[in-house]
Design goal:
473 residues, 3 domains, dihydrolipoyl dehydrogenase (NADH) activity, binds flavin-adenine dinucleotide, flavoprotein, FAD/NAD(P)-binding domain
Length: 473
């Protein structure tokens, strides 16, 4: 048994753990970063980057079918093996390699490999033979795909985002379980690459969007292209020579039974905190399998524990993991005095076609507030030129102050308008301030101008109505 005594222990060498490491290692040599499994981060190995590489190949395949409209018919076919080989080559040589180069530069005495678990306050076991004693801990252990037991009989054909990018070739058919961001991004990409794809949802909604019109339109637009069973429950699964069978029950009791080569389970992720033995460190785990913490310090209660990234199950996206690693480290370094950090407005983008984006406060979060909604179909002149006119944009303004509070978008390349709106929200800008900037013709940004003009009209009407209501007769 070997014992290591340090001031700081970081559990996990993903985006958030490495962010914490970069901060703490500038201040002290008394730290260790513990990593279970391969280095390289979830984002680069099995997350953001391979999924976007697959989507880009799928977009190219899609153009083969849509070129006719522009008088540019294309012939060509998808070569599944080459698609996946290129994905892995780009991923490994460009994105994972960059991470590994950084890991290589970290001194060996700062790195420890193995699974960490608490054996008491301030004490961790790593594997079976190393004990780490530390004063402060950064819990940056990420999350893993959730898989329900109903899929146990077909496990040999089940894929998750952890395994799908390692396939030698594309499957002939695939069932995608879930209607969240992973299911929609990968499901649409696989469909566009020629895989016979069916998505099975549970709630009937694309939950990231919260306005009922946005939810309905997103489902309509995506269902026009994809085979989606939005609402129901997988009752049972079994395997035979034909493949993996799924029995799915719809709300009206109707049952659908279908066989697939593969099943991609994308029904959410669970925090790896449950494997840390936190109860040994005196930490209470919430019903959601995570711990309570202050988002401005990332500190868990009054304990010398700081959490970051997907382990929190709160805003599980890359830029938040990046920020949280640094916030957790700064507060650990400063502790017991807190160093609270401001947080950025929420921003989430689904890289589907059309894209889905949510910025700032959602429609649901604004319930009870006096807002006006600027709203338009996603049809600027530029979108017409692209022949990409599906979708809708809603921008939520404070009815009294004109300040932009949030937005929900469904549209081609919505990510760019989403970032402009994020900039406006970050700086507390009003719609009139955004309308003061020049906007080129014909650009997609004209849609932002037009939706804010729509909001302006509605705000004037709202003001007039409020005045007439409050003016004594
Ligand atoms: C398919 C997919 C696509 C995504 N696409 C996007 C996207 O387009 N944009 C975006 O913003 N976000 C995206 N995300 C989310 C993004 O990847 C994550 O938010 C981010 O990678 C989280 O980083 P992290 O540091 O919290 O976790 P990780 O990078 O997962 O790091 C945690 C590390 O801790 C290790 N660990 C766990 N338990 C222990 C233990 N007990 N002891 C030691 N080590 C341990 C794990 O092995 C892991 O290496 C995507 C995620 C997935 C799965
Ligand atoms: N573009 C991006 O930023 C991006 C891309 C991929 C992943 N991610 C991150 O990864 C996280 C995980 O993504 P995800 O798509 O797995 O989770 P999610 O929470 O977005 O979606 C899970 C989906 O599975 C459904 N579901 C749950 N149980 C089910 C069941 N038994 N049967 C059928 N459906 C069921 C839910 O209703 C939901 O639609 C996201 O929260 C996101 O932060 C981000």
């Amino acid at each position: 048994m070997k014992t290591i005594e340090v001031e700081y222990a970081i559990i996990g060498a993903g985006t958030s753990g490495l962010g914490a490491y970069s901060r703490i290692s500038r201040q002290t040599d008394s730290l260790v970063m513990i990593q279970d499994g391969p280095y390289g981060t979830t984002c680069a190995r099995v997350g953001c980057m391979p999924s976007k590489l697959l989507i880009t190949a799928a977009d190219h395949a899609h153009h083969l079918h849509t070129g006719d409209f522009f008088g540019v018919p294309s012939s060509g076919r998808v070569e599944g093996r080459k698609v996946l080989e290129r994905l892995r080559r780009e991923r490994d040589h460009r994105f994972v390699a960059r991470n590994l180069r950084y890991i290589d530069k970290i001194p060996n005495h700062h790195k420890l490999e193995g699974r960490a678990r608490f054996i008491g306050p301030g004490r961790l076991m790593v594997g079976e033979s190393v004990e780490v004693r530390a004063e402060k801990f950064i819990l940056a252990c990420g999350s893993r795909p959730a898989i329900s037991e109903v899929f146990n009989p077909v496990m040999s054909r089940v894929l998750t985002s952890d395994t799908i990018f390692e396939l030698e070739d594309l499957p002939r058919s695939i069932a995608v379980i879930g209607m969240g961001v992973i299911a929609l991004e990968l499901g649409q990409a696989l469909h566009r690459l020629g895989v016979d794809t069916t998505l099975y949802g549970r709630s009937g909604r694309i939950n990231a969007l919260t306005h009922p019109i946005m939810q309905r339109q997103a489902l309509e637009v995506l269902s026009a292209e994809l085979d989606i069973q939005p609402c129901g429950q997988v009752l049972s699964t079994w395997e035979d020579a034909e493949g993996a069978w799924i029995e799915y029950e719809q709300p009206d009791g109707q049952r659908i039974t279908k066989v697939f080569d593969r099943i991609l389970v994308a029904m959410g992720r669970v925090s790896n905190l449950d494997r840390l033995g936190l109860e040994q460190a005196g930490v209470e785990i919430t019903d959601r399998g995570t711990v309570s913490f202050d988002p401005h310090t990332m500190r868990c209660g009054n304990l010398p524990l700081f959490i970051a990234g997907d382990a929190t199950d709160h805003l599980p996206v890359w830029h938040e993991a990046y920020d949280e690693g640094r916030i957790a480290a700064d507060n650990a370094l400063n502790s017991p005095a807190p160093a609270p950090a401001g947080r950025r407005p929420p921003l989430m983008v689904f890289f589907t076609d059309p894209q889905i984006a949510i910025i700032g406060q959602s429609f649901q979060q604004l319930q009870g507030r006096e807002i006006v909604i600027g709203e338009l179909p996603f049809t600027s002149a530029r979108h017409v030129v692209w022949n990409k006119v599906q979708g809708r944009i809603q921008v939520y303004l404070d009815a009294r102050t004109d300040v932009i509070l949030g937005a929900e978008l469904l549209g081609y390349q919505a990510e760019h308008l989403a970032h402009l709106l994020a900039l406006a929200i970050t700086h507390g800008m009003t719609a009139e301030q955004v309308l003061a900037m020049p906007i080129y013709h014909p650009s997609a940004e004209e849609l932002l101008r037009d939706v804010l003009i729509d909001a302006r009209k509605k705000r004037k009407r709202h003001e007039a109505e409020t005045v007439s209501l409050t003016t004594p007769a």
